[in-house]
Every structure is written in structure tokens, then in C-alpha cells.
Amino acid sequence: MSSRPQPTRQQSDPGRSCHAAAVAVAGDPDEVAARFAAALARRGLDVARLWVDRVPASAAAARRAAELARPLPADGPPVRAVLLRHDAGADLVLVARRGPLTGRALGELAVETAGTAPPAGAEPTAGPGPGDRTEDVEPEPAGQPGPAGQAESPGSAAGETAGTGAEDDGKHEGDTAWRGGNPRADRTASYAFAVPAGTDLLALTGAVGAVLARFGGVRRVRVGTLRDEGPAVVPVSVDGTLRALAARPAEPAPWPAPGRTPDAGPPEAVVGVLTADSPADTYLPSLTPPWPLTLTLRGSTVTCDFRTGVWSAEVVATVAGYVTRVLGQLLADGDRALADCDLFDDAERDRVAALGGAAVDLPELTGGIHERVAGWARATPDAPAVSYGDDRLTYAQLDARAGRIAAALRARGCGPGTRVGVCLERSVDLVAALLGVLRAGAAYVPIDPTYPAERIRYTVEDSRVSLLVGADGVEVDELLADDTDDATGGGAATAGPDDPAYVIYTSGSTGRPKGVQVPHRNVLALVAATRDEFGLGPADTWTMFHSSAFDFSVWEIWGCLLTGGHLVVVPHLVVRDPAEFHALLRAERVTVLNQTPSAFAQLVDADRRAADRLGLRLVVFGGEPLDAGMLTGWFDRYPERDCRMVNMFGITETTVHVTAQTIDRGLALAGTRSVGRPLPGWYVHVLDPAGRLLPPGAAGEIHVGGAGVADGYLHRDELTAQRFLPDPWRGGRMYRSGDRGRLLPDGRLEHLGRLDDQVKIRGYRIELDEIRQVLLDDPDVLAVAVTVDTVDARLHAYVVLADGADPPAELRRRVARILPEYMVPATVTPLPALPLTANGKLDAARLPAPAARPLPAAREAADPGAGPGRAERIRVVWERVLGAEVGPEDNFFDLGGNSLLALRLLRELRAQGLGEFTPRHLYVHPTVRALVGATGTER
């Protein structure tokens, strides 16, 4: 079998190397043949046959179009000439390869052959010319060189040639997205539009470049074209003018390029611009459109030929409108910078500004969160409110406990305008304490007790809390034991809807976390916007799965208690054991579940092995991007009518959730990236780097406005001013998210990742710069790079160390004393220097594989205390999963293990018959020696 690469459609399509011209002809066929031979001879070309065919007048137009679209065979002459005679006259069609004849030369040859342009004194044109390219393309066999009516010639399919007039059905997924067509229904369609008088190829190229730059959010784009010497790209800088563009030469782009796909077009160009200027009546500069979107200028009309698998008809029409508007501005002012051209008129601007969410009047939001919960205590006092294992509180009991805590807090000086730190283990008292803080009129600052002491200390100091509940502060039992004059906690003035409810700390690029301050009103608005749509009410049972320091818990706790539901607090170890969590969901008859996609993937695996089905009716995803395809198997067991799956996009600074997209089987199979439309009261804008509205389908930075925008960053006025901006279109403020996305014409939002170094790991928002800064704070660290392994959800650090520095293992231990577990790099690899690009930036592609961590304990070939065979086999599995050497006393989590790797390890141990271990075993016995000694059956 030959190893020669098979030609792609782009490489083998003979229509790309041919152009065609047609003219009306008068005279005897013999005279036409003679003129044709003479015209070829004057150009130094071999004599070619003139094919003559008579056709009915009714079929003449169709035959003329077919001949224009039929490319030359590989071994035929450089020109094919067909004379089509009919009752109304005759048409001459010439098809040629570009090497021998330029576009103008082909037109001159046509009119000379037709006898409409006398050759006397004229200097014939030959060789490459404007509008042509000379690349060597291997054509597909195309039958005999005669006219289509005399010999079969497959050529191009009618639906894949320029100017067919085919229309996009617009029914495929992504049909409204920028370059969002359907490859499974790929074909070529056309769209034509008028352009202002005076439009030439230069102006059209500049206008197309300006529009593409706005869509891409860049300052420079490359537009494809065909020049005398072949295909080229024109660098269009939107900071320049048309005059500057005229002075900038095109860059050759030989094509097809090795390894490029059929969809690609010439390198670095997604759109091409051609001219059909020719002496002939009709001229096709290429029989097959060279680019996924090819614009051809013919007088005052531009024809857009586009691949429906890459572009949708709706977006092409939108782009055409923008190009027309920009052309008018450029032709009126030749010194106008392309970047200064406006895509929108006033009506279009208003429409785009309103696309990201309609104005909605939410119910009047009065009082505070605690008052709404107290309302449920009065209405349903005996209904279950919160539980943790066997410890359960009704709404009346929760309200009474929160009241006693509030009274004790007030007695200690905590009230409106103050903040109270809450650093408690998961329990019913954690929820009661949070509610008690709100009832006292203060704002709570949740702190995860598993955080390192340094992180806890920083949060307490930075937030300037008046009191810390838990950790080294006052305990809940002390607050409950206080003897105060106001035992119910309802005596003093309380907080209103505009007062702060909580401050949650998020990762910060400066190396220190930053506190986001959110008022009661935002949380009340979130519940009001979702309660009816999701059918939330007293019949629901929710889980508090996430840490109170993670903003997803705001939705879990208050979404449940503000709608009268039962909140089940999930124990810390159960969170890490999908099988135990599945059992808890079943035992507690949970109906509403909130998960990051990473955690839900583990639950899906546990559900496949479980005999009993869950009673879930609503699953809400958040915290990180969702791969919708992972849900197809879930729908097999839990049909959409029984369990609704909702993907929500949100940010701490915009009160947990912003948009919602219900995922059905069709969207899951299509792998949708949509996060849906904004919630009632929320809205989004997608802006370019200059802060201008982008058209629907264009990718830019997501800005969020409306009911969820937080008060700002605590004690960070400058940062607040940078991220919380005035909204020039709707008034009020909007949050600049740093997330990349695009609005679709129907108002849905697609989330496309981050614009910066921020990442999401297991739902946690992490600024890589914070990790870098903590490492750089060590005086022995000279330079740092941090990367993410998305498969294992692990971070890896690369450091340049000073002479005599401590080993990387010690550096990692110091970092672990400052950063939470999920931010500690799994490995620290020393390098003599970080690899850099020519521009002095980190060249991440040249970073080596992460180094295996050296052993904190001496390695032993076997564990004599528990049987060398089994111990050694378990240790080998650990090494394979962790990618590091493992000793019998090495801690799994100190070696970079996390919850995802723990599940992988346990599955492999189970598959090899080494023990029926659970995540609980690993958390309790985190070394090889300890795990070998475990029974493998304890729960």
C-alpha cells in the first residue's frame, strides 16, 4: 500500500486551479474557431479545439452555467473553449488553468474570439495577472475535455460551485453562531448584497478586515486574496487607514499547505476577497470558492460564497450588513482608521444591547434573608429545615437557635456594619451560625476549617471581622449558653436588603485572596428569579455538598431555606466518596442536587453500579464548564421528563448564577457550549477590548449587569473600580468577568473559557498568579511557572532556585502551609532557567514533564510488617497513578493526590483484587503501610 498522503478535498479539487469567462458571440462557428486559434497563437499558446454544441434556447442559460462550473481535466490543454449555439444567438465559454492566463488575459481572449475586440495594435496579456494564482493543484479526473453535452465530465457537483444560489436550511445546531455551521450538512451557498459606489478591492478588503477584527477582538487580521503570483494574505491592521493598507504588500501564502484540512483555506485566513473585474460578460475567478467565506466583487455587487458547515446563512447576512456600513464610512473618509468605524447604527446598537437579557421587574425585595427564613418558621414550624446525620432541626428549632446566636453576637458588639467570621466544621450549627449572623444584622465571612492556618489568619485579618466563630474564636456552644436579655435575637434593628449579607474570598492575581461583598438583595433576587422556573418549594430536599467558603453553597443553603425546603448537610468524608454520597442521596430522598461537572461525573459512575435509582428531579451544574456529552448515559436511566438537567454560568461577583440552560438529550449529543439565557433581572454584554458592543456571534469578554452585581471587593477600591464598571447602555454597574464568550442571535450565551490565567479545578476558581506569588515570596525562588493538567485536575510548578536552596519537597511543604489543598502544586520541578519565546514570554510548550517528587521517607522494596507481595503490588499501583516514587510511609495527598486520582487508585486496586477500598479508607489511611493494614471492608 502506498504511503503517499491521500489528497484532501481542498488539495484535489480542480475547480480551485481554474477560472472561467463567458461572452455572447455573433458569427459563423468557423470564423469563431479561426479567431480563437489566432488569439491563442498571438499569446504563444498551443492551438486548442473549439467545441461546438447546439442547445435549445430554453436550456441555454443552464448549459452556460454548467460549462462555466466544469473544471479542466488534469492532462488536457490549458484552455477549453465551448461554443453554445441556440435560437437566440450563441455563447462562448472559456475555462483555463491560471498559469497560462490571468483573469484579464482570459477575458481579452474571450472578447477577441467573439469578434467584439479587434486585436490590431493591441498587446495581448498572458501569464499571471490580477485576480489569479499559479499554484500547482492535482485535479481529479474530469472525463473528456469537450462540452458537457457531448462527453461525460463529472467535474464539480452543482451544489458546490460558486453562484449556485443554494440556501442554508438554518436548522442545524450552531446555525446562529459565528463560524458555527454543521459539517455533516456541508455545502456551498451564496448570498449577494449591494455595496456603495466607488467600492474597489482595496476598500472591500479593509472593510472585511475591520469587521473580522471586531468579531475576533483583535487589532490585526489576515484576509485572503488571489494575486498575480498566486494566493496571498493581506495583513489588515485596524489601527491604520485604507491608504496605509494600500502601501502594505500582500504576503504570499502557498496553498494547499501540507497537513491542512479541507476546511482551512489558505494559511491564517478565514475569509477571502476577490474581484471579478474582466472584459468578458461573465467571469469566475475560481470555479470553487477558495475560502470558507469568499467575497467576490462584481461592479456594485458582492457575492458571498460560503461553506454551510463553517458559516451559517444568518451570520453571513449579518456580516454583509456590517461590511456595507463600514464601506460607507471608509469611502467617505479615506483617513479614517479602520478601528474607528462603527458596525452599528442606533437601532442596531439598542437591539444588541438588549439581546443579552430583557428588562424584568422582580418582586419587591424587602427585608433580609433571615426574615424570609423566619417566615417559613412561622408558616411551617415543624417542617424539617436542616439535618446532618441524626442531628436534625425543624424550621422552628433552626429559627430559635439562630435567634439565640444572634442575641449573643449582639451582646458582643456584632450588628449592622460589622462582619463575623464563621470557621466551623459541617454541621447543623454551621447553618444556624450563618443564619444567626444575618439575624444579628452583620455579614458572615465563611472560612473553611480545612484551610491552612496562614490562609485562615489572612482572611480574618483582611476582612477585619469583629468576631470569629470557631477555630480559635468563640464556639457555638458558648454563644448558645449566653444569658442575654434578648434570648430570641429579635430585639435590635436588623439588616435590610441593601446591607451586606456575606463576604466570600476568591483567589487573587496579586497573590492574596480578595473578598467579594454581596448584599441580601442579590440573594433574594436569585431565589425570586429561579423559584417558579425550577418549581422550588417545601417538598424539596437539597444537599449542602460544597464548602461554605465556596459561593455555590450560597445557592445551596439559601436556595433551599428561602423556599421552605429541607437542607441535608453532607459530611466531609461523604463528599469524597461517590458511593457513600449516592447512598445518602437515596436515603434522604434528595430531589435537588447542585454539582460541579467534575463531582457529578464521579456520581454518574457510582450510579451505574447502584441497583436503586435516585429520586432527583433537578440537577444544577455550576462552578466550571460542562461537557454536555457526559450526560447522554444519565438520560438513559433518568429521562428528561423525570430529572431536569440545568447548566448555569455564574461568578462570585454576580451572586452565584447568571444564566441557565436546560440540557436535553439533543443538546447533549450535540455537545452544546450554551449556558443559556440570563436569569430574570440579570443581563450580559459581550464587549471587545475597547469596551464596545460586539455583534451576535462574535467572541469577546462577558460583562454581567443587573440584580446580581456585588457591592465590590472589600477594602479594594482600586480593584473594584477596575472590575465593576458603569454600564453606558443600561445604566447602573456591570462586572467585567474575564470570561470569554459570545451571544447568539437568539439571546443564548456560549461560554468559551478564560481570557487570563484563571482556571477552575473541581469548581474552585484559581488565579495561577496567586500560586506564583506565594512561591516567589520564598527568597530562594528566582522564577516560577505554574501549569494545569486538566486530565488529573493537578497543578504543576516549575521553579528556578538560588544556589543552596532547600529541595523542592520542602518548598512544596511551605506552600501547603499557606494555600488551600486544591491550590498546592502536585509537583515542584527545578529548572536552571524557564524556557522563553523570542518575545521573552514563557514558552509553556518547552517545559519538561513534571519531575517525580523525591521520597519524603526511605523507600523499601516491600513492607515486612504486612506481607511483601500485597504491599509491593499496592505500592506499584500508587506509583503508576501518582507518577512518582512512593515509600511505605508517604502520604498520598502529600504526593500530589486529589479526589480524582483517589478514585482512579481505588478502582485499579479493586480491579487487581487488592482490596475493596473506599475513599474513606484512603482519607483515614493515606499511606501504603496504613492502607495495607486496613481491612478493605470498613465504612
TrEMBL record:
Residues 1-14 have a biased composition (Polar residues). Residues 1-21, 112-183 are annotated as: Disordered. Pfam families: AMP-binding (PF00501), AMP-binding_C (PF13193), PP-binding (PF00550). Residues 112-126, 140-165 have a biased composition (Low complexity). Residues 865-939 form the Carrier domain. Keywords: Phosphopantetheine, Phosphoprotein. It comes from the Bacteria. The keyword Mitochondrion does not apply. This is Amino acid adenylation domain-containing protein. It comes from Micromonospora reichwaldensis.
